[in-house]
Amino acid sequence: MTWQLALQLGTSDQPLFERIAIAIATDIERGRLRVGTRLASSRTLAQQLGVNRNTVVAAYEELCAQGWIAIEATRGAFVTNTPIAKSALAGADGSSTLGYPEHPGFELPADALDVETLTGRPPGSLVLLGGVPELRGAPRLALARAYRAALCGAGARRLLDYASPHGHIKLRTALAHLLSHVRGVAAPVAAVTVVRGSQQGLYLASRALLRPGDLVAVEQLGFRPAWRALELAGATLVPIPVDRDGLDIDALEAAYATRPIRAVYTTPHHQYPSTVTLSTERRTRLLSFARRHRVIVFEDDYDFEYHYEGRPVLPLAAADRAGVVIYFGTLSKTLAPGLRIGYVVAPPAVAQQLVAYRRVVDTQGDAVLEHAVATLLEDGEVQRHTRRALALYRRRRDALCEALQRRLPQLDVPAPRGGMAVWASAPGIDTDAWVKRGVAAGVLFQAGSRVRFDRQPDPHLRLGFAACNESELVEAVDRMVRALP
Amino acid sequence: MTWQLALQLGTSDQPLFERIAIAIATDIERGRLRVGTRLASSRTLAQQLGVNRNTVVAAYEELCAQGWIAIEATRGAFVTNTPIAKSALAGADGSSTLGYPEHPGFELPADALDVETLTGRPPGSLVLLGGVPELRGAPRLALARAYRAALCGAGARRLLDYASPHGHIKLRTALAHLLSHVRGVAAPVAAVTVVRGSQQGLYLASRALLRPGDLVAVEQLGFRPAWRALELAGATLVPIPVDRDGLDIDALEAAYATRPIRAVYTTPHHQYPSTVTLSTERRTRLLSFARRHRVIVFEDDYDFEYHYEGRPVLPLAAADRAGVVIYFGTLSKTLAPGLRIGYVVAPPAVAQQLVAYRRVVDTQGDAVLEHAVATLLEDGEVQRHTRRALALYRRRRDALCEALQRRLPQLDVPAPRGGMAVWASAPGIDTDAWVKRGVAAGVLFQAGSRVRFDRQPDPHLRLGFAACNESELVEAVDRMVRALP
Predict the structure, then answer these.
(1) What percentage of chain B carries pLDDT values higher than 90?
(2) Cβ-nearest to B118 among A164, A178, A311
(3) Which of A293, A474, B405, B440 is least enclosed by beta carbons within 10 angstroms?
């Protein structure tokens, strides 16, 4: 890789060759030119700078004499940075603070945002993190082909250009089809917006619909980045208990009676992190509550497909006739999280506002990728992959539960009806210490404290089973046993 | 594409086959099942529902008798939707509001966000919009190859997984190299964050560094979505005049004397939209002002490479030793806007806060794409493409200026030293009317009012020359002549 030199020659009255030499030496001292880097030939640099070639030759000779560079017949001039007399080349202002500034030259806000960053994954670790799917079988070749077809096809120029912040029409159509035929949500294309994962969907919907001071009910156990999205829009969160039937609607109604809430954020299909499904009776009551009080329901349905006992329960959005549900889906679990394809289903007037914020937040999506993913949906590639994953995950769920029961009988391990993780309870065990010791033992999992609204210690563990095969799961449980505090 | 039916069979005391028939008819009425759609075979549906096949056969026969579906020997059952007796299948609650809700069932915020959406581009239009690059020569095949190599290579599983919100290390390294060697910014990799275009970079930096009530100075002529990003973080904008030497530093200092400002957002290299370059004297004064008052400088350098007279002027960030400059760049102009690859260069402590917000806003970038684009940078593909584009754009700039001088002598058309657009003045002409009439005549361009802070009518035009070849530019000017109000 050869780059043009970026020299500021200044306007001092030194001879030109000296100014060139100083500029290059400064670049070396600042680290812009690294040891071993080849300089441009004197002919090339002279052309670039619009100076006589002899001037550059003189500058190079000066630099060579002072030890900054070496000149060899075969390699030309290259950086050595062993200067004999650095001071001879010091800047006119005697500046010694060359290089990139280490610290900001202004005050940082006092209220730094506190979000969990990605857990480092030491090499060789077995990953029992709840939301990570199996990626070894992802349809990578089909995606690469579809990507190339999109990029080199007749419409490629438009795909590479500025485009609609609603997402590519081909993907919106394929998603509308999927929503209608598999999830019972008969949304028109105008109601479907493609976003970069359900996290962005929730962020944009929050910005579009919430205002500072709005109260938003959330499940007392949940996903902290989602809560942060609501808070960044100014919402004040009201935690509501969750039990074996999901969100406690009595508690929700009691909270509303105290002070009207603007919205509820919920994961009814497989409650995050406990994986319980909201009961039919509560679903009906929640929708009726929302319709009656004109409360927004943010329904996050991040892993609809992975249901093992009977058929998936249709989303709240499928039964919503009042227009209170904003529905979030993602291809992170069925295709791959790294591609960042999610979608929001909302009445068109809401979708319009959502994309107005999207225009400011990231302009638009990646239409080439959206086109390619639409092809995978149209061809049934995603659906086939999901069906294979469903069968795989059912076996892995069983394998993990069995290994846990066998090796860690002190845990209570209910087999989840759906989802990608087990929500086990470990009474009397310091789960936070266990997780920490697990990292050292080569197994990554989560303690209940991480998903509790109040961050208190919690005797639960969330153990994902999707990303490991059956023998890896057995090994992971062995490592958990070794890591027991 | 074949999808599972999503039926909610309910729990009434009707015979099962009738409940299945009602569920299917309801789906047809709601538009979830469209005319011509093939239903699953009775065997498949029976398996899916866990019922006897004869039950499904009876349901299909009922639907056929009522005209909802037809059954043909070769095609099987498919939707016709010509029911004889819709009432016979009405829902138990007599509901007639089937389908997706048209309107939200809650109040929308009164302060809807007002952003310009993408201008529709009628087919056959010639595009003289300032920021649109030539995409016909984009290195699409090289990108498709690099994408496939990333997706099908050894590290693909990690690329598809959850990842660092800083961006892929390979692309951050390639960008650090580019910044150091071409732009004189000796930033370490820790200072470089990959984002989805400079718009997202500015949005995230604003969220990370600004707080409600902060004053931010902006150029009186500028890019409205950038201003919105600052405002969404709570900033109050203070417009500062721009003249032929760029941002007016006297006016900036006067504004500061009235009330301290927190930050300045500026486009010093090619001022948007006027394309003027900030003079050397003002650059020095701006940096000194920022250092003295600990004011943040948001430097948006969206088209560094496209400078036609002499070499590009190095960014403010290259001369910043105090850590006051946050630098935004993009590959939108050198590769393609649709890919949404941009970057932010900031002291590491700032980068940390920026990615904390990024975690909430869109989780992370697309590592597969970032890996592929890094390959194009390492191979020099982007650089070669940019060099070709630079030569192309210089000719196009000259062709547009010449055509304008010949056909529209009433305009004042200074040839820009850099950038992708001409900033022409059209004294005495209603430029807003001209733009509107231009759309009808098949030529798209912008009037000054669109980029003025106060939105007042303005006698300037912004005419992009990058996306059209020379004969298209001549034709575009012909259309402008025909559209003259």
Answers:
(1) 73
(2) A164
(3) B440
